[in-house]
Every structure is written in C-alpha cells, then in structure tokens.
Amino acid sequence: MMQESGTETKSNGSAIQNGSGGSNHLLECGGLREGRSNGETPAVDIGAADLAHAQQQQQQALQVARQLLLQQQQQQQVSGLKSPKRNDKQPALQVPVSVAMMTPQVITPQQMQQILQQQVLSPQQLQVLLQQQQALMLQQVIVLPPPPACLPQNPGQQQVATQQLAFQQQLLQMQQLQQQHLLSLQRQGLLTIQPGQPALPLQPLAQGMIPTELQQLWKEVTSAHTAEETTGNNHSSLDLTTTCVSSSAPSKTSLIMNPHASTNGQLSVHTPKRESLSHEEHPHSHPLYGHGVCKWPGCEAVCEDFQSFLKHLNSEHALDDRSTAQCRVQMQVVQQLELQLAKDKERLQAMMTHLHVKSTEPKAAPQPLNLVSSVTLSKSASEASPQSLPHTPTTPTAPLTPVTQGPSVITTTSMHTVGPIRRRYSDKYNVPISSADIAQNQEFYKNAEVRPPFTYASLIRQAILESPEKQLTLNEIYNWFTRMFAYFRRNAATWKGAIRTNLSLHKCFIRVEDEFGSFWTVDDEEFKRGRHIQRGRPRKYCPDENFDELVAHNPSLIKNMQSSHAYCTPLNAALQASMAENSIPLYTTASMGNPTLGNLASAIREELNGAMEHTNSNESDSSPGRSPMQAVHPVHVKEEPLDPEEAEGPLSLVTTANHSPDFDHDRDYEDEPVNEDME
DNA sequence: CCTCGCGTAAACACCA
DNA sequence: ATGGTGTTTACGCGAG
C-alpha cells in the first residue's frame, strides 16, 4: 500500500555523493580495461592480481606525478618560462569533458622527457615519474586480455608470461635507476631516506617546513644538478593512460583548492583550469600578481601596475637556476599541502562514515549527500537547478541535513539539529526545495526516522511536482509522505491533519475537481511567495457560536472564483517552470500531462463569466453544476484577496470592495484593495 | 518584547 | 453512523 506509486525513480541519490562524478567517466574511459583486469580474472595467477593491485597504487602515483608536472608547467607558464618545445595547445584529447576538466593538461611523453632533461627534477619528481613509467607498463600489461591462468596449456599464456617477465625486468631496471638517483641525491646531502624506502620521500622531507627552511632549500637545490637521463621509453598511449586513470579524489581536491589559501602570498595553489580561465577572462589578472605585489615566492616586489609587474617577472624571474629551483620548492609545498588535504579529507570521510553508520537502519547507510565537503564538491556537478536552490546562508535549504536524536547526517553547509527543533526556510519567501534536496537525502529519510527539515508545504509541493501529472490526491500525498519519509509512518493523524491544514492554508495549493474526485496541484510561483490564504476578517473561533451564522456574515468563507486570468496564467507558467526546474523532461507542459489542467484556463474563464453574471452571488462553489464548464471541470480555487500586482484587469470586479474596518488591523489586508464583505 | 511562520490540535462541514 | 476530506481557528514555539 505504501509503496504503490512507482514514481520514485530518482537516480541521483547516491551518484552525487562523494563527488564521484568521475566514476562514470572511469567507466567510459578506463572501465573496460579495469573491468577486464579486475572483474574477470577470478582466482587467477597471483601475478595478474598483483599487477591489478599495483596498478591502483601506481595510478595514484601517476596522479601525483602529473600534478607535479602540471604545477611545474604552470609555474613555468606564469613565470614566463617556456619549455623549449612545449606545445601551446595540448593535443586533442579524447576524454570525457569532465575528466578533461579535472585534468586540464596532460603531460605528453615529449614533455615528460623535456622536463626530465631540464635536470631540475627533484628526487620526488623523478620517483613519481619512474612510477609513472612503471604504471604505464602495468597498464600495457593489463590491457592485454586476461589470461585464463588456470589453464596450463593455454598457448597465449606463455606469451603473457614472457611479457610479464620482460615487464618485470624493466621494472627492475627502473627501480635500480630510481635508486641510483636517490643514492646520488643522498650523497649530495639533499635527501635523507633509506635506499629501499618505497614511499615518496617528500613527506618527511617537506613536513614541518618553514619559510627559512624553504629558503635554505632553494639555495641548496640551485646547486644541485643531477644528470639523469631517462631511457626514453615513451609511449604513445601515455596521454590516454594518464587521462583515464585520473579520476580519484586527490586530483580533484587539488584542482579545486582555494587559490587564496595561501600564507602571506607565499603559497598559491591554482588550478590550471581556473588559471587559464582567469587569464582569458581577465587579461590583467595574474596569479603571481596581486595587490600591487609580485607574489613570486619570496619576492614580494612592489609593482605599480600590471605592465611593470610583467617586466619584473620577465627580468627577475626569468628562466634560470634560481627560478627553477623555486618552482621545485613550490611544487613541494603544493604537494605537501595536497597531502595534508588528502589526509584531512580522509579523516573527514572517516568521521562522517562513522557518524553515518550509526543510522537507525544500518543497511540504509544513506551516504550523507553533501558529505563531500564544499571544498571538494564541484558546484557544477549536476547541481540542482539554480533557481530552485539558492544556497544562501540564510536559507538552510539543501541537505538541511538533519541531525537528530538518533541518526545524524552532517554536511558542510550546515550542521543542524532538527528533531524537535523546527527548521524553516526564509521567512520572507519560501525557498522551494529542489528534487535534488530530497533526492540526495532520499535514502536517508526513507530509512531513518528523522523528521525532514522541510516544511509541510515544501514537502507537499515536492510530492505534487514529483508526480507525473503534477497533481495528487490527498491520499496520494499521504502515500508519498509515508513512502519517502520514515518519520511519517507514525502519528499519521498528526501529520495528515497538518497536510490537510497546509493544503487549505497555502495559496499555492489548488484543489481541482474532476468527475473522479479531487486532486491537488501546486502553483510554484505562489509557493515561492509563501503566502497563506487570506481569510476574511479575523475571526475568533468560538465553538459555541453558530458557525453557519458566521459564514453568513463572512463571505470570505465562501469560495468563489476570482482572478482567473491573473491566476491561471501564472499557474501554468509556474507549473512549467517547476517542471523545468525539476528536470523532468517527460512532461513538458502541464496541459500535455494533464488534460484537466490544460483546460484549467478555459474552465476558469468560463467560471469567471459565470461569476460575472452573479457578481453578488454568495453561493458556495461547491454547489455543482453552476455552469456547464464547471460541471465538466469544477475547479475550486481558494479565495484570496487580490494583491495589487495581481489585481490588474477587469477581474477585480469579482470582488467588491467594502470590507469591514477592522481589517486594518490585519497586516495582510493593508495592501489589499478589495475584499468582499457583502451584507 | 514583538512579529511572523510553522506545526499541532481541534472543531466543524460536507460527502460517500 | 462512520470515515475521509476540506476549512478554519487557536495556540505554542522558535527565529528574526
């Protein structure tokens, strides 16, 4: 019964979380490869499994390497350095756009070799490059069809084994080369690591660095020249490889890192993408120039204007040993920051995971929608419609992640305590919750008995808008509530009554009747206004009084049609806007989805005509068959005093203006020009 | 302190 | 008579 409706097929529930937008691209790009290497080699030879495992690690190393190189390129670029043969335009990459955005630049083998030949590589760089090469070879091996290892007589196995042997030999060579390099560096006193230490030596090296140490390091590195030559085993597939594997978090985080997160201008982390954009859009902005000061690490030279800055940049920070060394240091600094960020991200993730596991229903484990910190979550990633979700501090809309008595969800946007504490949107206007809001928390609220931090009106609206035809009966609204929120599976009388109250009270909810009964639609524009139905004079409810007499003396209690044109038009527009807002392409217009709604305008016009004939009619609109159109589509629109902006046109004659004086006390009627108060 | 929005409860009417 | 639906009001609470 509760699960009857099949309209809930939101797919963005968990796809968004964790910023795993790249996972799809991983499928597109490297998924084939990985699927073959991982998924379809069950219990095969250990070598292949190890390769696959090693591949993951190498991919990470690859990423670090790429970032290092990107940083260097970037620094070179902004420093006026020019790689001898560096292409201004990167070769066209056949990668998904989003991936390309995450990895705006890809190091070509030529570039790699150039960088290597520049002899300014740090041991870390060399190491990661070597690892990159290794990873490349791993990729090549893994790309090969997985050998059915359990078959001893497989003719292809021998070939694969030979290749693996050759590969391992190459690996060995590279490791030796790497170690030689590290040893040479050690001899120069630039590196203090154990020869066999596999991890990047950067971390212990760069940890706790202070500016003075950096300065010292600059001095040291400028005198350190190591003539390392790579074997030059370039591979044409490098571009693709490096691009395809780059979808993990560190890259993303580093790319989105706040450029202003610098300490006294010494550190500046820029995403290549952003930078290129800023360069294109703001020709006079420069990452190394700000507030009239050169931001080259350790420089801080005052430059009057941008031109002088450029001169200064070209003269003082030209391509020389000092500059390149400073680039190196800068890279190390950046990498250290990235490591730190990765650590903190990991810690954050663990914290959130831990807190989330405590949800009432472990199976649900609804990932905290926006758990991905605002730092890492790209706003562009399938963000909700902008109009529906102004993520302003004043409107704690979104995840509105409730933290309650039991289960809890945390977002970076807000950490609220909902539970008994009510949360609401802006008092000024309703901020509609987008489908993404609920959808992202859908699993959570479905299983956790947490009161959703949305108002009833918002939820009702959402329910209606989610429905295929943008209309729901009351019972369907009930069902939506119970289906979507575990919280509303209890105390039905309470919240059902609240729903009914809200439906009646809010202007935005329009009851429409047809021959089969009545259903509710929503006027989204009206919803955003957040107004309530304005009743007649404030009436003290006295059960002892004769209600009928009250009705007789309070015509506002009597529903009638009004403001048809002014009302139905925005209604349809609002419905369409709502649908566009909710990205529901299946139902382009309300009239298409719902013939009744499509006829709403004409029906109301007819109704208006009828009403004009009975200007003073005080009969209830519930009386059927007042007009032929009404008989077909008896549309009941809640009465509302005309607002000035809505009262344009001849429709105002529906309401006659003579209301009782005590309306003046009601703020809602200050601007209301008319309100019918007959007899 | 006041106002306002919201949730809740309740009374009541209407209808099937 | 009963239950569902719809309307209206009162009141408390929290936020601004």
From TrEMBL:
Name of the gene encoding the protein in the UniProt record: FOXP1
Chain residues forming the annotated DNA-binding region: 451-537
Record text on subunit structure and interactions: Forms homodimers and heterodimers with FOXP1 and FOXP4. Dimerization is required for DNA-binding. Interacts with CTBP1. Interacts with FOXP1. Interacts with TBR1. Interacts with ZMYM2.
UniProt GO MF annotations: DNA-binding transcription factor activity; sequence-specific DNA binding; zinc ion binding
Pfam families assigned to the protein according to its UniProt record, in alphabetical order: Forkhead (PF00250), FOXP-CC (PF16159)
InterPro entries linked: Fork_head_dom (IPR001766), FOXP (IPR050998), FOXP-CC (IPR032354), WH-like_DNA-bd_sf (IPR036388), WH_DNA-bd_sf (IPR036390)
Composition-biased stretches (Basic and acidic residues): 272-284
Chain intervals with Polar residues compositional bias: 1-18, 257-269, 376-389, 614-625
One GO cellular component term noted in the UniProt record for this chain: nucleus
Comp. bias intervals (Acidic residues): 669-679
Source taxon at top rank: Eukaryota
Record-given protein name: Forkhead box protein P2
UniProt keywords, alphabetically: DNA-binding, Metal-binding, Nucleus, Repressor, Transcription, Transcription regulation, Zinc, Zinc-finger
Function: Transcriptional repressor that may play a role in the specification and differentiation of lung epithelium. May also play a role in developing neural, gastrointestinal and cardiovascular tissues. Can act with CTBP1 to synergistically repress transcription but CTPBP1 is not essential. Plays a role in synapse formation by regulating SRPX2 levels.
Segments of this protein annotated with the region Disordered: 1-43, 257-284, 376-413, 613-679
Species of origin: Pan troglodytes
